Amino acid sequence: MENNELSYDKALKRIEEIVSILEKGDKGIDELSELVKEASDLVRQCKGKLRMTEEEISKSLNGEE
């Protein structure tokens, strides 16, 4: 799944879907590996968006532009 263009909310929803799939435990090791990699990429993407938002809020509160 291409996730470079996902919004934070869509990425988070996909992470939740992957967790649900992993909890079922009915996938083969190859598919599990791909799902874990996808989830890891999505988590990294979400963290980046959160960091950027935090920086923007901090700048706004400090009167910076």
UniProtKB/TrEMBL annotation:
Any Pfam family the entry gives: Exonuc_VII_S
SUPFAM superfamilies associated with the record: XseB-like
Name assigned to this protein: Exodeoxyribonuclease VII small subunit
Coiled coil regions, renumbered to chain: 29-56
Gene3D superfamilies tied to this protein: Exonuclease VII, small subunit (1.10.287.1040)
Keyword set, alphabetical order: Coiled coil, Cytoplasm, Exonuclease, Hydrolase, Nuclease
UniProt-listed Enzyme Commission number(s): 3.1.11.6
Species this chain originates from: Shivajiella indica
Family the UniProt entry places it in: Belongs to the XseB family.
InterPro entries the record matches: Exonuc_VII_S, Exonuc_VII_ssu_sf
Superkingdom of the source species: Bacteria
Molecular-function annotations in GO: exodeoxyribonuclease VII activity
